[in-house]
Amino acid sequence: MRLSNATLCLVSFIVFFLLQRPAFAAKKSFVVYLGEHSHGLESASVDLDTVTESHYEFLGSFLGSDDAREAIFYCYTRHINGFAADLEEEVAAKIARHPKVVSIFVNKGRKLHTTRSWEFLGLEQNGVVSSNSIWNKARYGEDTIIGNLDTGVWPESKSFSDDGYGPIPSKWKGICQNDQDAGFHCNRKLIGARYFNKGYAAIVGKLNSSFDTPRDKEGHGTHTLSTAGGNLVANASVFGFGKGTAKGGSPRARVAAYKICWPPVGGNECFDADILAAFDVAIQDGVDVLSVSIGGDPTPFFNDSVAIGSFHAIKHGIVVVCSAGNSGPADGTVSNIAPWQITVGASTMDREFPSIVVLGNNMHYKGQSLSVKVLPNKLFPLISAADTKAANASIQNASLCQAGAIDPKKATGKILVCLRGQNARVDKGQQAALAGAVGMVLANDILTGNEILADAHVLPASHINYTDGLAVFTYINLTMNPTAYISPATTQIGTKPAPFMAAFSSKGPNTITPDIIKPDITAPGVSVIAAYTEAEGPTNEDFDKRRVQFNSVSGTSMSCPHVSGIVGLLKTLYPKWSPAAIKSAIMTTATTFDNLKEPIINASNMKAGPFSYGAGHIQPNLAMDPGLVYDLAATDYLNFLCTLGYNETLISTFSQNSYKCPKPISLANFNYPSITIPNLVGSITLTRIVKNVGSPGTYRAQVQRPIGISVCVEPKKLQFKKVGEEKTFSVTLKVKKAHAVKEYVYGQLIWSDHVHHVRSPIVVKAV
User: Which ranges carry the Inhibitor I9 domain (predicted)?
Assistant: First the structure.
């Protein structure tokens, strides 16, 4: 067929037009942060509307009015000033240069800090870390309001029953956002719930109505919120294991859920735009504590939604507690590193769920499990999963018990030994069961060392440590017909040593500001039993059709709300204390020793240090009476930013107040409850201020010197005559050249009146 001349001309024109027009510029979602608002907590709706219009006008100056209204999907109008919008990168670059803008950053994703999906108290029964006498004194956190930024909440859980509760506190301004989920109900315990998903939708596309609910369909949010503030529930257990009375750290607190995390996309569940929206609203709602069990890679503060939201929260007296992350045991992996946050690592408690692996040579190895499936009391053939390799699978995939890698002809009727790593621990057991195995021994690799976790496996299984795993593999390799038996799991209390650091717990040094130790503290985060969603099984795997009211989960996500609950108690006891004073009380009363009175170790049986546990393992009873505290106000944090090189104009916009950097100023003098000098040349003298929050008394300095460093404290004695009195002291650190060590070394400073022992870690690196 021949084309006419007119048709050829039309085709030529279209081709020419397509070649000449500029390429389509892809859009991304950004957060534009403009600092703080000047209006107060009681701002009227008209004020909020005015702020919204100002955001449209601001972006309209770059895009035009109509395009600006279409691009913006969040306006932060209450305390955080800014908006989130879909923008071309070229436009974002222009906005970044505007003098009103503090920062602009991509709407990044963050992760939940639980190990369950990739591998796997409420201060609960038996493994309690706080005595009833202290809880009673603090009225169990009565009427403190704890907010939780997470995956939502399962409101029907008994942990959120409001039996015996009085009216909702008058200061509460929040709502129960159930307009699209009529079956979701709040009460006098669970006093509020909201959801935030526009930032998530900006990444994945339009969402259906099933996303319009604060209901927890994943389990993480219910678990963390009940750990922080869950009510007392008798006879709580996971399939009968760990049976006792579950209770959150502040069991009489009121709680509120802010759902910001959704099904993973690119490995991330919680997005910056939603996080800031939740912080902005939670501050307005009237929470006293915010528990945040999420995080990402360490990021400069003004590009970090959690750091920004936390700063605005602490300005209103709200304590923000964050998880350190699950990227350990590598150094420099800790997240949530702002000094105004309490950052929590994860360690074990003195409760285990032992399941014994008995070999044919009568050797016994203690693992852990929550499996309700039981083997007949006899020996079964034992085989390394690598030796069950399917024809088309790699040895590595078979050894990890990955899907499709196990040959049923080789596995049927046997106990498989699977290596930990890559796929979920419970999935390994599922793959073994699908291949006909009767049981599984899960063996750690060298990195995970002694960290063994109790999971609700679908077949008889036991998780053993690295050393024992080597012994089992050696037995298999040297025995003609290796056999084994896995004993039923039980609950064991009072195990030793405890605590020790979890291998997954992220570690310092702080890669953004090395002068601040992070994490600040460690708390129970391994095999923690707390309330759970009934929308998922205990393993969160598609194959798991079981449902539980309580579940055992591990991660810094679990240790974080332990501290949040204790903060709730402190807020009840001392409502006028600042967030910094509460952090100081928690840090300076922590312990670095286990229940054998030996230094806390890590999962590799090595002595742990401040980069693992910060000030140490939390001791709630002592935190209630710290004696002295290192206090900080919002202005001190602005001075901190000044020492990092942020200019006065930017800091003024950030704080909505005129600001001048004091001269001179030194980061070493920042009044933190720990002392860190990452690049000590010669010597340095720094100052600290302590405030008396106890009875009158005289405190004397005791110093444990870091190797190769001399430490001099002046004065060596501080006398306090009244509550609220402050005293200043100096610490001089000097490198002993003959004994200098070119790596981080650790010591401690203790102020003691023989009743209180106010301890601060000292971390120094000579250069």
Answer: 29-113
